[in-house]
Amino acid sequence: MTKTIQELFDLTGRTAIVTGGGTHLGTAFTEALCDLGAKVYIASRRARLCEEVAERLRGRGMDVVGTECDVTDESQVEALVERVMVENGRLDIAVCNAGGSFTTSYPPDGDIDEFKQTLDVNLTGTYITAQCATRVMIPEKRGSIITLGSIGATLSMDPRIYNSEFNRSGPPYLAAKGGVLNLTRALAAEFGEYGITVNCISPGQVPRIDTNVDQIETFRNMVPLRRTGLPEDLKGSLALLASDAGVWITGQEIRIDGGWSIW
Known about the structure:
about 15% strand
């Protein structure tokens, strides 16, 4: 029987993991999944922060569990997936959101350890999370893996638009996110036969609340929609890719940047 649009987006009874779920975009993703009926495990290296966020969301009636997990440690990710399976018997959605920039130096004097750390958290962590999640999804012939890219996955960033008070991400972050995007395509090819979709959300400029106001204004003037992004601006795309509404979408990138990339 054909599903209604409400039924296509309904996640009631489904279980999700959101890595890096205790801050910024991760919290918005968690809210979106819970609003649609899913139970969500938010995990990061900061266990206390995850539990604080989970407690706040539970106070709003959401089914959220906060826990510790370092996505660069395969044994920890395996343990998280095992816990989800023991407690729920299923894992339907994995949002590979954990990442970040650790750049404090730039070419030709860029720190190689910073480069390696950026690749490890963003790219290796995504690979580990996706692998561990799909091991339990494959027998069920279903599942959704959602990775986090960036407009920097396909575009370079002009160093001249950043003021001295803004710690720009630089080449290591762009290299890592470029890797995440093509990893997404590769995993979609690997897991398509099992009914598992793998897609990438690439945000534009979504400043944190402590971002310098002059820098935000520079970003705003570069966006056709004349504003920078908000975490909630990404909820709709996540809902599409995590639900049956996006069941025939795989290996794709959705850029959500207010039009930044059309110039």
